[in-house]
């Protein structure tokens, strides 16, 4: 039996070709995929395709589209051995992070990929990205998929999706994963580092302690609802009281991802700490995430983060802002009112933080 892969086209540059007459980029008919990439026939797997009704630029990605994508995977979960999602690169890390939380106890790979140049361009990076993503999604061992998590494949590297960020708008090497090594590297051989793959073990042990999030080690659980009442507040020298207070007073706000400096440092002025304190008193959750791409929050290391630590602020450790947002949206939706948000957030649920 050959592995069966579902290829899902959501939109983005990868699915575009140049109109031979006008020279303009347009989406190509996805049902004609094999015509444009006949090489796919050589792969040792069965490929079926589906597409968003109206493919989108990933800048238009939102919670509604996440649910459409999640539903496609969830409803066909038992019929395929792996999923490859073609997605614009701009928000690929956000979608990858969201999917990683939406699917608990994943037993199959979900690989997101895209490209910097359209598939119809002579110098395209799309073909390699697509072909290798499909190969990785169909890697088997004793009839079991080897990869059981949500990944991003781009320019010869496979990453854990919730560890990635888009860092270059031009280079083929568009993504980085500064706090977790690539899960696989494509060279002459496809080298998967099995030690680095998500096994779910830590997740289960941690969650067992952190009841009552439902726990079922064998069955995949799909949780598609995300709470959008969150905001990212990025600190910068000169940020005003008015800006911080206005954000903390947004009607119905439930969570703030506070992008701090370095190892989690922030201004020490009274109005700033007071504004955060009042927000916490209103039950708004605040997570301290560093603006640095690499490294971790370590509250209390410097004088400038002692006050935040004293407030009992949640540490994002080395999580990316993209993953922190998705995790917050997920926890705000599914964590029971009485649950300890800090405890849940500071636990690695899908390998998104090193703790
Ligand atoms: N703007 C495009 C998108 O994210 C860029 C890309 O596909 O890489 O949909």
Protein architecture, described:
Helix 3 runs parallel beside helix 9 and helix 6 packs parallel to helix 7. The strands form 6 sheets. An 8-stranded mixed β-sheet has the order 4-1-5-7-10-11-14-15, sandwiched between helices. A 4-stranded parallel β-sheet has the order 17-18-19-20, with helices on both faces. It is built from 10 helices and 20 strands. The chain has 2 domains: 4-196, Rossmann fold; 225-345, 3-Layer(aba) Sandwich (Rossmann fold). Helices cover 26% and strands 21% of the residues. Residues 201-212 have low confidence and may be disordered. It has helices at residues 33-36, 63-75, 92-102, 126-137, 201-209, 241-248, 270-281, 306-310, 321-334, 341-345, and strands spanning 4-9, 16-18, 25-27, 46-51, 82-86, 103-104, 110-113, 140-141, 144-145, 150-154, 157-160, 165-166, 175-176, 184-186, 190-192, 221-222, 230-234, 255-260, 285-290, 314-315. It starts with a strand and ends in a 10-residue tail after the last helix. It is of the alpha/beta class. Strand 10 and strand 11 form a beta hairpin. The chain is globular and about 65 Å long. The structure holds aspartic acid. Aspartic acid is lined by residues 11-13, 57-59, 88-90, 114. Aspartic acid binds next to loops.
């Amino acid at each position: 039996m050959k592995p069966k892969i579902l290829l899902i086209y959501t939109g983005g540059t990868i699915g575009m070709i140049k109109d031979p007459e006008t020279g303009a980029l347009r989406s190509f008919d996805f049902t004609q995929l094999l015509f444009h990439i006949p090489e796919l026939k050589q792969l040792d797997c069965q490929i079926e395709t589906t597409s968003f009704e109206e493919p989108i630029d990933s800048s238009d990605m939102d919670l509604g589209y996440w649910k459409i994508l999640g539903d496609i995977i969830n409803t066909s979960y038992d019929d395929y051995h792996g999923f490859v999602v073609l997605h614009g690169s701009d928000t690929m890390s956000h979608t990858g992070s969201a999917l990683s939380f939406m699917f608990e106890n994943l037993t199959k790979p979900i690989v997101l990929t895209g490209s910097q140049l359209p598939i119809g361009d002579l110098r395209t990076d799309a073909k390699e990205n697509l072909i290798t993503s499909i190969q990785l999604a169909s890697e088997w061992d004793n009839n079991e998929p080897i990869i059981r998590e949500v990944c991003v494949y781009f320019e010869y590297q496979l990453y854990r999706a919730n560890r990635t960020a888009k860092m270059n708008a031009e280079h083929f090497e568009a993504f980085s994963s500064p706090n977790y090594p690539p899960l696989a590297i494509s060279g002459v051989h496809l080298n998967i580092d099995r030690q680095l793959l998500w096994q779910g073990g830590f997740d289960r042990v941690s969650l067992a302690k952190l009841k009552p999030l439902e726990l079922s080690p064998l069955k995949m659980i799909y949780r598609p609802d995300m709470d959008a009442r969150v905001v990212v507040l990025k600190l910068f020298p000169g940020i005003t009281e008015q800006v911080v207070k206005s954000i903390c007073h947004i009607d119905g706000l439930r969570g703030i991802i506070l992008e701090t400096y370095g190892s989690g440092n922030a201004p020490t002025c009274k109005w700033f700490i007071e504004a955060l304190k009042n927000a916490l008193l209103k039950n708004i959750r605040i997570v301290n995430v560093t603006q640095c791409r690499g490294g971790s929050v370590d509250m209390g290391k410097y004088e400038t983060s002692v006050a935040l630590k004293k407030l009992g602020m949640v540490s994002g450790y080395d999580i990316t802002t993209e993953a922190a947002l998705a995790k917050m949206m997920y926890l705000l939706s599914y964590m029971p009112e009485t649950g300890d948000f800090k405890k849940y957030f500071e636990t690695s649920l899908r390998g998104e933080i090193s703790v």
